[in-house]
Amino acid sequence: MGKLRAAQYACSLLGHALQKHGASPELQKQIRQLEGHLSLGRKLLRLGNSADALESAKRAVHLSDVVLRFCITVSHLNRALYFACDNVLWAGKSGLAPRVDQEKWAQRSFRYYLFSLIMNLSRDAYEIRLLMEQESSACSRRLKGSGGVSGGIEPGGPGGPGIPGGGLPQVALKLRLRVLLLARVLRGHPPLLLDVVRNACDLFIPLDKLGLWRCGPGIVGLCGLVSSILSILTLICPWLRLKP
Length: 244
Description:
Blueprint: H1 2-20, H2 25-45, H3 49-60, H4 66-93, H5 102-145, H6 168-188, H7 190-209, H8 216-236
């Protein structure tokens, strides 16, 4: 499935490049047809994915962390609805239901896809926040144990123990330290980093299809290809998949 998705978005990116460089209309048509066949093949292979997403939502309901439980459950429910709309689209494109309004169902499917990605990114942001707090507390304990100034990586507020006084330089320093802390957390947790990048790349696809942010077929193809490669990487190396 991941390879088909990567091939589809590679065709989208290639088609954009061919159009930009003035390739022959016949070649561009062949690439578009190949992309369409790959898309239809993916829809066929996803016929049972709604049930899988519902089962994943049932398992997520039992998570102890309320924020993770909400984000993951809602994400899976939206994915189930997205796949259901995708099945209707497949029936329309394959000729089984020729009267299906494909434009309407495509818009519905991308809306559910967008909601699912928003929930995924919300979950990522929550996990990053927890890890940053843990890392900051650990640094504070290490500094106290070594006789350094308390406060860890994150400086105190204006007039606090980390940085005396206030003003723009202190705000800039606090921001820089937060960015460094974020980089350390993501570097130390590759599954979370991959999930953030993959969801961020996927986000451009429904935004473009729904007309909320037109970024063009080139950007959509590139983001879809990067996301697909990362998905394949998590299949090859299961430890890179974010859990739960």
